[in-house]
Amino acid sequence: MGHYGYIKGTRIMKSVGSILFEPSGTLMFRGPMEFSPTVRGPQTIARTLPLPLPSTIAGCLTTLLLDKGISSLPKVYTSWEDALVQVLELNDEACLRGPYLLVDDEVYVPFEEGLIKLRDLLEKFKEINVKEVIYKGRLFRDVLEPIMIRLKKVEHVGIGLEKVSKAVKRGLLYSAEFIDYLSTFKGRKVSIAIDIHGMTALSKLPSTEQYVMRLGGEEKTVRIKINERSYLWEDVSRIMREIESKRECLMYMVSPTLIKTPLADLTPVVTTRRPKFSINGIDVELLVGRIDALGAGFDVRRGVRKPMYASLTYGSLLIAKIEQVDLIKLYQCGLSDVGSKLGYGTFIPLPT
Asked: Among 61, 89, 127, 156, which residue has the least CB neighbours within 10 Å?
């Protein structure tokens, strides 16, 4: 059963390219573990995700637009999501899709703590019957392990300081983990990328300009460039042509899905094997992955953390009923209750 907004039609999604974030060194994209001694004890750990959350990317682009005077903050604050959507001018069908890693024009998507080249993922899915593998109880991780790239990481150990006096906090040690894309893909051109669909405030940025901005934690910077190609969409649109007449398809989640239902209320669902539920009006069955708690990041301008949500993790694999669904429209809308225009719920459709 599909949401009425995704009923099949002739609507074609227009794309205007992508935004590239080129790293100059290591980067940190904090996962659920934070610098919190009340949770972790005197030695705290900050683990990094393989790619930034969509809200991290959207926040960086929002800051760029505000700094350049292209957009302004809404006068009346509603929610973190609406504020970002308004500044980015994600009107009508405009949206962000991703993020993903781009290495020499090849798309890489996250899986567990590493990355997989999309081309290799598609080949692997052609070699095996995914549903048969999973229904027989084989670990999906074992299937993808041979093609997963483990990212090189750097760990820094330090001590906590009091905010005002800068005196050392007694007994507080911390360990911060950073991704080193440049060492992982030595000698190759590496960028974090996000596709931009439709006309947005980002279209007002001169395409020949480059911008240095902070991205992620610990004041790390990237160089932002505008690109005419939308690399992920190029691959996804080719796949869609192969499955447009199917009743169901597999969906590989490139970015997390944020679910409005509180995690506690989802417990009866997530504790069952291969749970079935609905996301944004689409009926799905979870084959691989888990539902966990995930924060949407930090609101720098308001100085507060964004809310926590029940989240379907990136790298999850679903079966979705698409018989009466416009798959292009669904891709554009995203498979997420919250933040879908910002990139949450970005998926790659795959034949069953």
From this structure: 127
